[in-house]
Every structure is written in C-alpha cells, then in structure tokens.
Amino acid sequence: MEQLTHFINGKRVAGTSGRFSDVYNPATGEVQAQTPLANPAELDAAVAGAAAAQPAWAATNPQRRARVLMKFVALMNRDMDKLAEALSREHGKTLPDAAGDVQRGLEVVEYCIGAPELLKGDYTDSAGPGIDMYSMRQALGVTAGITPFNFPAMIPMWMFAPAIACGNAFILKPSERDPSVPIMLAELLQEAGLPDGILQVVNGDKEAVDAILDHDVIQSIGFVGSTPIAEYIYSRGCANGKRVQCFGGAKNHMIVMPDADMDQVADALVGAGYGAAGERCMAISVAVPVGDETADRLVEKLAPRVEALKVGPYTSGNDVDFGPVVTGAAKENILKLVESGVEAGAKLVVDGRDFNLQGYEDGFFVGAHLFDHVTSDMDIYQKEIFGPVLSVVRAQSYEDALKLAMDHEYGNGTAIYTRDGDTARDFANRVNVGMVGINVPIPVPLAYHTFGGWKKSVFGDLNQHGPDAFKFYTRTKTVTARWPSGIKEGGEFSIPVME
Ligand code: NAD
Q1: Closest approach atom of ligand 1 to CA 281
Q2: Among 91, 157, 234, 281, which residue has the most ligand 1 atoms within 8 Å of its CB, making it the best to mutate?
Q3: Catalytic site residue 112?
Q4: Which residue ranges does the record assign to the Aldehyde dehydrogenase domain (predicted)?
C-alpha cells in the first residue's frame, strides 16, 4: 500500500501520528494509498518552519517572488498530463476536466505574477504642510488554507498563489480524499525556486484543522468546503482573532424564460448539471422554466440528452462525459436523496438508480438523474446533493422564478437564459446571488475578477482571487511623515485638522 506524506521544509515527510486515511480510486473502489493525518505537534513543526522562512521571503523584492511563480507556470504546463492523471486517479473526474482544474488554478498564478503592480501602495505628497502620507501592503506572516476534494489543484492555488506572491508563508491542509496533486504542486514550486518552508502541505482531518484554528502564529485562514464546516471554521477562527474567509455550499438555479433557445438551454444544462458528476460548487442543480409550456419543451429536450450521457472511468478518454463520485459514502448519500425525491412525489424522468458499469461494479459510479415537478419543500430542492441529479422546478412567472433563487439559503451562482435584455438586466440587478450568468450556465469569474457567493455560501467579506486576494493576504500600513525641518517651530499640542 502506497503511503503518502506531508511536504514540509522542502521535502516529503512521513506522518508520525500513526493515523491514516484511505485514498480511493473512485473508478474501481479500491484503496490505492493512505494519507497521513497530522497531529498538532506535526502541524506545529510545519508552522515553525514557515515562520522561520517567511521574513526573508517577505523581504525579497516582489518581482523576484513573481519570477518564481512564472517558472511555476512553465513547470505546470510541462507536467500538465501527469498532474491531470494523478488528479483523475484520486478524484474520478475525466482527464480533460482534470486538466481544466489545473488550468483554472494556473490562471490565478498568472494573475499573481502581477504582484509588484498589485502591491503598490498609495502616496499623497504634501498631505499637510511638509507632510507626506503613504500606505503599503505588508504580508501577514504565516497564513493557512483548508481545501475541499472537488478541485484539488485549482482551489489550493487560488489560496497559496496570492498568499506567497504577497510575501507570506502558507500552510495548506488539502482534502484527505485526493491529497497527491497538492504535494506535486508544492514540489514544482520548489523546483521553480520557492525557498523551503514557504509552502508547507500538511495532510489531515479535523484534528489538524483544529490545530490550525487554534495556532497562535497563524494569521489568516482560507476555507472552501461545505457550509456547516465553513460556519464552524469561521466562528472558531474569528474567535481566535484570525482573519478568516470561508466559502461554502451551493444550490445554483438556472432560470429559463419562454423566449430562450431550448436546444441551447438543454445543452448548457447537461454540461452544467452533470459535468464532474455534479461535484462542482458552480454546478446547476435546479432548472426553473417559466410557464408549463416552457417546462414541457425543456424536459422533452433534456430527457434524451440526459439518457445519452456516458458515465465511465477517466481511463476511457474522451468517450466519457463524467466519472464516478468521490467515495462510496458520497454515492450512498446521493442515492438516498434521490429516493427521498421519489417518495416526496417528484417525477423521476430519467432514473439512474440501477446504473451499473460492467467491469467496474465496485466503482462509485452514479447514473444521471433528472427530476421534474420538484417543489421547494422537498429535501432534493433544499439540500446540496453534489451528484449527477438535476431538478426541474416549474415557476408560473418570472417573479416566481426570481423569488425561488432569492429565497434559497445558498447564493453561490445562478444563470438566466433569455433573448430579452431587459429581463436579463433586471435579473442580474435584483438577484441576491454572488455570481450571475446571462446565457452562460457556469459563470465562474476569471482570475482577474473575484469569486464568491452570497448568503450561506460565504462567511467573511473579501472574495477569492483577483484584487480581493491581495487585500486578504496583506495588511495596510499607512505612514504619515514629516521631516525635521517641518517641526523646527516646536511641538504641537492640539490635534491637527485640515483648514
Ligand atoms: P468538506 O466540508 O467535507 O471538507 C472541506 C475541508 O474541510 C477538507 O479539507 C476536510 O478535511 C475539512 N473538514 C471536513 N470535516 C471537518 C470537520 N468536522 N472539522 C474540521 N475540518 C473538516 O467539503 P468537501 O466534501 O471536501 O467539498 C465539497 C463541498 O465544498 C460542497 O459543499 C461544495 O459546494 C463546496 N465547495 C464550495 C466552493 C465555493 O467556492 N463556494 C468551491 C468548491 C467546493
């Protein structure tokens, strides 16, 4: 059995806690490796190494730091196939989708190469008589991030790239379900010239997370994962005086207006609903056609497309639309929710419950499901299923459809399909969701914009990547300076005011 490691002070380090977690190949259901689960002492050693290395890294000029990231981008491109294969083997997603996972992280690294520009402060000459005022953005010190299984390359990079570009050290606690790619990324960064200790990868579960939350030296915590854990990490991290940003779960609605091109909508929905087996926080899991006639046309177009979806292992190459879900427990949870939908009276138009893949009977495959006549009181509507299950909720008017998206507790992403600019504009202005697509099903902003939901999809204020990341990973210091010639008249005893 392969034993995975941590990555501390520039090398792979075996776990010492004696606790391990199984890492599966979701396509076969086999345990392919074990990852160590760090205890507080191991975390503490990683933090000590990071704290020792960080001041010199922060003092390195930002252009030199950016050059390390430039080289890192080149190395990721060199090793793209290897990274994608390792990612698919542990996560289950198809190879092109795994390469996309790496690519969307790489694009944030490219953005962070602009650190010298992004870190420039403000300067006011003669803010008062003989007084200049300037601000600078300084690194926080040792920062940390806790990431989910569903984007094991992209989300760690969304955190550690801006953190280290700003001059911080970063402790990454990846998902224990697919921990290999984060270690490979750390090795590539080291090959690119990152000093030892600046990116530490500590594998673990709740024990390591709690040690991060309570560690005095760690200044900030980024989290992406499910909402209950996001809420927990936010409250405990903030109570410990840390800067915390947490991104949680989702239930993304797509509003389908009667004037939309129904073929386009159906194509968009199969990709957005079933891609990566529905295990994306920006997946569309609810389609809301407006009017029964629109709903009938939509379901008629959708059903054959959903039935035709090809499910299989990543090793089948381009013949597969989506792969297995990540674990047996995830599969069980999805099928339980499907059952609850049937019991609650939703119409299961495409039934994937009996899906079985010959030769892969022990894999965690779940067939595609399509529900119609789902209502807002059902569990399959309220809960995040995180599997290949799309629910059609029929709305009688645009206002009803908008209200559904607005009333749902999650507010990560949403989309509207229409040919009418006025409706689209009204929707984008009024909906209380963080990322909106207009005739775009998965509106994930590019690296130079910011990513973040609203409502229970987020805890904290600043978004991920883009300019917000440079704010999150730095503190502003503002200096008011007057040189001796300005005070030769003697001290001032009343508060200075502008006249
Ligand atoms: P998860 O919440 O189970 O795990 C996320 C991380 O938290 C992992 O590193 C895990 O080890 C750790 N963790 C799990 N239980 C913990 C506990 N009790 N105490 C402390 N730490 C704990 O999430 P997941 O299943 O890995 O990922 C899927 C979820 O992530 C979905 O809800 C999805 O919507 C969400 N997600 C959100 C975004 C976003 O940007 N909003 C992006 C991707 C995924």
Answers
A1: 34
A2: 281
A3: no
A4: 17-479
* Least confidently predicted of 198-212, 214-228, 333-347, 483-497: 483-497
**Which atom in ligand 1 lies closest to the alpha carbon of residue 249?**
34
Residue 121 confidence (pLDDT) above 60 = yes
Does 210 share its domain with 260? Answer: no
CA of 151 to the centre of ligand 1 (A): 11
pLDDT exceeds cutoff 70 at 488: no
- ipTM exceeds 0.85: yes
Number of structural domains (the chain) is: 2
Q: Taking 70 as the threshold, does the pLDDT of residue 490 lie above it? A: no
What CATH number corresponds to the domain at position 271?
A: 3.40.309.10
Segment 408-424, tens digit of pLDDT:
999 999 999 999 999 99
* HSE-CB of 64 using CA atoms within 13 angstroms: 10
The whole-number pLDDT of residue 69 equals 98
**Are residue 424 and residue 461 in the same domain, yes or no?**
no
The encoded tokens of residue 17 equal 């806690």
What residues contact residue 394 under an 8 Å CB cut-off, 6+ apart? 288, 289, 292, 295, 372, 373
Say which CATH number the domain at 61 has.
3.40.605.10
For residues 379 and 309, state if they share a domain: yes
Domain membership of residue 356 (yes or no) is yes
Q: Are residues 237 and 361 in the same domain?
A: no
Q: Read off φ and ψ for residue 259, nearest 5 degrees.
A: -90, 0
Domain of 414? 252-438
Protein residues with CB under 6 Å of any ligand 1 atom: 146-151, 173, 175-176, 205-206, 209, 224-226, 229, 247-250, 281, 384, 386, 412, 453, 457
User: Does residue 79 sit in helix, strand or coil?
Assistant: coil
Atom from ligand 1 closest to the CA of residue 229: 2
How many whole angstroms separate alpha carbon 180 and alpha carbon 102? 13
